[in-house]
C-alpha cells in the first residue's frame, strides 16, 4: 500500500513538473505570437504603402498610343514606316536636286 502511495506521489510530481513546463512554453509561445503579429502588421503596412506608390506611378504614366489604322497610315501598318520616312527625308529626293549637288 505504501508503494502505491509512493508511485502515486511520483506521478503527481511528474504531472506538476509537466504542467509547469507547459505554462513556461505557453508563455514563450504567446510572446513569439505577439512578436510575429507585430511583424505581420508591419509587413502588411509596407505592402499597402508599396501598392499605393505603384498605383500613383501608374496613374502618372502617359496613356498608351493606339496602333495606327490601315486606312490612316497604310505604310505604318505594313511595317515600311522607316523606309517611307527615309525616302521622304532623303536629300536626294529634293525637288530641285540642289541638296544632292552640294548647295545652290
Question: Can you walk me through this structure?
Answer:
By secondary structure, this protein is mainly alpha-helical. Helix content is 69%, strand content 0%. The longest helix has 59 residues, at 2-60. It is rod-shaped and about 110 Å long. Mean pLDDT is 80; it is low at 92-104.
List the helices and strands and how they pair.
Layout lengths: L1 H59 L13 H4 L3 H9 L15
Give the beta-strand count: 0
Sheet having the most strands: none
Terminus-to-terminus distance? 132 Å
Shape, principal axes of CA atoms = rod-shaped
Low-confidence stretches: 92-104
Offer a few descriptive terms.
104 residues, mainly alpha, 3 helices, rod-shaped, disordered C terminus
Summarize the structure.
The protein is mainly α. Helix content is 69%, strand content 0%.
Amino acid at each position: 500500500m505504501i508503494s502505491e502511495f509512493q508511485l502515486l506521489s511520483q506521478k503527481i510530481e511528474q504531472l506538476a513538473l509537466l504542467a509547469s513546463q507547459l505554462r513556461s512554453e505557453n508563455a514563450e509561445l504567446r510572446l513569439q505570437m505577439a512578436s510575429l503579429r507585430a511583424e505581420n502588421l508591419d509587413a502588411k503596412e509596407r505592402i499597402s504603402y508599396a501598392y499605393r506608390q505603384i498605383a500613383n506611378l501608374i496613374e502618372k504614366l502617359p496613356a498608351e498610343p493606339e496602333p495606327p489604322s490601315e486606312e490612316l497610315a497604310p505604310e505604318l501598318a505594313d511595317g515600311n514606316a522607316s523606309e517611307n520616312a527615309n525616302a521622304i527625308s532623303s536629300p536626294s529626293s529634293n525637288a530641285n536636286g540642289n541638296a544632292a549637288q552640294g548647295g545652290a
